[in-house]
Amino acid sequence: MTTEVRLIQWGMGMQEGVILRWHVAEGAVVAEGDPLVEVEAEKVTADVPAPVSGTVTRIVAQVGET
Questions:
Q1: Max CA-CA distance within the chain?
Q2: Which of 30, 33, 41, 59 could be disulfide-bonded to 17 (CB atoms 3.0-4.6 Å)?
Q3: How would you class 26 by CB atoms within 10 Å of its CB: exposed for 0-12, middle for 13-18, buried for 19 or more?
Q4: Could you report the per-residue pLDDT of 4-33, keeping only the tens digit for each?
Q5: What is the spatial distance between Cα 16 and Cα 18, in angstroms, rounded to a whole number?
Q6: Is the dihedral of CA 12, 5, 38, 63 positive or negative?
Q7: What pTM does this model have?
Q8: Separation CA 30–CA 9 (nearest Å)
């Protein structure tokens, strides 16, 4: 079963974020809660955790992309 990971909204006015750094690569095995990616939004920089345990099959947003 595939789980799509989407950017979480940290505040009511948050519309987008910029990928600063991936902590994992395609093919990496992760546990629920492991940090996947570091994202910068208007007022916060934070890691997005893995919502479930599994294998990263595809990364669609690259560093620097909004």
A1: 34
A2: 41
A3: exposed
A4: 887 777 666 677 889 999 999 999 999 999
A5: 7
A6: negative
A7: 0.83
A8: 22
